[in-house]
Amino acid sequence: MNELHAILKAFAESQHHAEPVFLATVVNVKGSTYRRPGARMLMTPAGQMVGTISGGCLENDVFEHTRVSMPDGKPIVVIYDTTADEDIVWGFGLGCNGVVQVLIERLDKDDPVNPLAFINQCFCKQQQGAIATVFNVEGTVNIKVGSRLILNSDNSVITDIEEPSLTVAIIKDAQIALENQHSSVNKYQLTLGKIDIFIEVIQPPTRLTIFGAGHDAVPVAQFAKALGWHVTTVDCRASEATRERFSMADEVILSRREILHKQICVDKHTIAVVMTHNYLDDLEILKMLLPSSALYLGFLGPKHRTERLLQDLRAEGINYTAEQLQRLHGPVGIDIGADTPEAIALSIIAEIQAVLTSRRGGFLRDRTVPIHQRNEVKQTQVGRFINSGGGAYKPSLPG
Known about the structure:
The chain is an alpha/beta fold. The protein is 30% helix and 26% strand. The strands form four sheets. It has a six-stranded mixed β-sheet with strand order 8-7-6-10-9-17. Strands 13-12-11-14-15-16 form a six-stranded parallel β-sheet, with helices on both faces. Helix 6 (218-226) crosses helix 12. The radius of gyration is 24 Å and the shape is elongated. The model is unreliable at 87-91 and 385-399 (pLDDT under 50).
């Protein structure tokens, strides 16, 4: 179970008790830091901490803030600056040369803008969304740290921000973030002050479909589940024993290649790995997957086997484009010298992760640019309200 799933589970369990729970979220970073914006940690008064916001050096201090710095329960932002030598005096020993801003807040399950409730909704519905969180307020504006705007995939909005002109600007930027699939930090200049907001894109778990239920497919499913992915195992031999062997999978489909297309839903978010060890099964699966919009198609086996599959498709009059072939990875995996089921599974999962993040999978020591993309910071002048003449007010859209 990955970190975010563990946090969601711990929050759900906490609702059976009367004790308050606190959430720490990295909302902004500068320079080199261990975790990126969006990293979270859930805390209870009993000392339970689920998730991490650093390499283990900030967690205890953040937890102490829930005890001594939040008597009124209002959200606070704690800044850790490790760019100076004073870090040694503090005793954090972060080992990074950067600045981390952490929002700490008490969670209310009935709060309509509860971030964990929204993330859980996105996961359950397999939908994207965006969370815009205020983490810095300057001036005399009537907006509080911890205020939020939530944008659903259908563009519906939930917010406790009561400044309409700012709300319009945030919605526009949240829509851009969803379109670009990239979180950002946005600074808004209002008439009476400034607001800093972290806009986070929420993605549902990666959906991996494994065609094949042999013993070598088991570690692929296990590694994927460790990353929090949604795993479907498809057994074209329709063996009932598969359900027990792949008990970690979210779904097990027992089928035959002749009817497979009726039971499998493939879309642009689908990640498919084919490892049936049956040539005719693979041919039928490739015939179904290649013209689909699947994001990634991985086929186990040597390169000449994949080429033969493609030749047989051409012989059947099935043509494919260069774009479709670009999504086909055969042999599947990256070159790490894998020769055991576990190492091969690691190679496969690593390649998928690289594709999802648009990376090449090389050695980090050979990179000449930062490992993580620097935070995008957008500055917006929020328009003033103008009287429309009929007594109502309409916002002047920024930009």
